[in-house]
């Protein structure tokens, strides 16, 4: 964690077979994370967000302050 409360979040994008690391804070919502990924990747494709999923293979702490994600969700077409 950095002095400003941010940390690096690694995200693997399966459709593009690429991993990105973005700096986030605990107040960033998932839509903000996805927007930053799209901007960073330069994606020009139209897609339905309902077709996209997030996969959390193990419970983990999203926010170093203790916000835990205790689930796994994956919908591959």
TrEMBL record:
<dbReference type="GO" id="GO:0030055">
    <property type="term" value="C:cell-substrate junction"/>
</dbReference>
<dbReference type="GO" id="GO:0005178">
    <property type="term" value="F:integrin binding"/>
</dbReference>
<dbReference type="InterPro" id="IPR037843">
    <property type="entry name" value="Kindlin/fermitin"/>
</dbReference>
<dbReference type="InterPro" id="IPR040790">
    <property type="entry name" value="Kindlin_2_N"/>
</dbReference>
<dbReference type="GO" id="GO:0007160">
    <property type="term" value="P:cell-matrix adhesion"/>
</dbReference>
<feature type="domain" description="Kindlin-2 N-terminal">
    <location>
        <begin position="3"/>
        <end position="57"/>
    </location>
</feature>
<dbReference type="GO" id="GO:0007229">
    <property type="term" value="P:integrin-mediated signaling pathway"/>
</dbReference>
<dbReference type="Pfam" id="PF18124">
    <property type="entry name" value="Kindlin_2_N"/>
</dbReference>
<protein>
    <recommendedName>
        <fullName>Kindlin-2 N-terminal domain-containing protein</fullName>
    </recommendedName>
</protein>
């Amino acid at each position: 964690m950095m002095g400003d409360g941010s940390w690096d979040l690694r995200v693997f994008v399966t459709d593009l077979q690429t991993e990105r690391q973005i700096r986030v804070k605990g107040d960033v919502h998932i839509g903000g994370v996805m927007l930053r990924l799209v901007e960073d990747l330069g994606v020009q494709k139209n897609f339905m967000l309902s077709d996209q999923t997030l996969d959390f293979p193990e419970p983990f702490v999203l926010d170093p302050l203790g916000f835990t994600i205790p689930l796994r969700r994956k919908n591959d077409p």
